[in-house]
Predict the 3D structure of the following.
Amino acid sequence: MQWTWFHKFASPKWFYQITGKILPFLAWLTFFLLVIGLVLGLGYAPADAKQGNSFRIIYIHVPSNFLALAGYFLMAIAGAIGLIWRIKLAFWVMKCAAPIGVVFTLVGLLTGSLWGKPTWGSFWVWDARGTSMLILLFLYVGVYSLGRSFHNANSGEKASAFLAIVGTVNIPIIYKSVDWWFTLHQPATIKFTSAPSMHPDMFYPLLIMIVGFYLLYAVVLMLAVRAEILLRERKTNWVRTLVLK
Amino acid sequence: MSMTFQFDNFAQLIFMDGHGVFVWSSVLLTSFLLLSLVLNPILKRRKLLKKLKIEFMGSDNASY
């Protein structure tokens, strides 16, 4: 059965080596995109007609929340792969994705809060979008804590994977919350089926920031998994060779 | 697409018609959190490499 290509991806050594090669390039690209996106968004995009300059928070708030959601999918899928194919690298990716997801979700919530104050008059409202994002934060924290609470690491990983998979139901809820409920949070600006309802001069920096944040997530995840690989594979020959050279 | 700088001077950029405190707090807070997120695994890996090096060198010497 020609599955050897697939199992190559499961090799921690291969992952470590290939990420070592692409990380410098990715890191620089990420840095440039984020700097350019932020400069354009904060200084060059025209202010919003209704919200004024507070809308500039969008250049952090939206990308961060995109990654909070995408990162959760990645974490759940990694958990599923670990469970189905018993690939330990997949579990390590899942484990690393949890605290990263916490940070992106937290950034989303905090920037949302800071945006809410001048816009809605309050740092927090129990609106559908905000509340479901808070639940996402709890899910991330739950997956992380659950994994660590087991004496047996293997059982911990399986339990985390199950929680991550079950929690996936929250993602479409978050996504559709602005359509299903009568909420304060505004509906989607970026749609799959039609043009964005936003001026191009506002939209392009946002696009740059979204791409930048996706790359940032990839960079951070790779860094975290590399550290985890070294730890878990420290008894192997290839790590020994790596350390001693 | 010709974009112009939206503020008259640096003070205006900071103040942002009263919204500056919210925007810049977001920027600073996010930068701090994301920087920690990047640095944490880098430092962790370096620390581990150092520790392993000592361990492996030590075990190589302890052959008497």
Observations:
- Chain B has a mean pLDDT of 88.
- Chain B touches chain A through 35 residues (CB under 8 Å).
- The two ends of chain B are 74 Å apart (CA to CA).
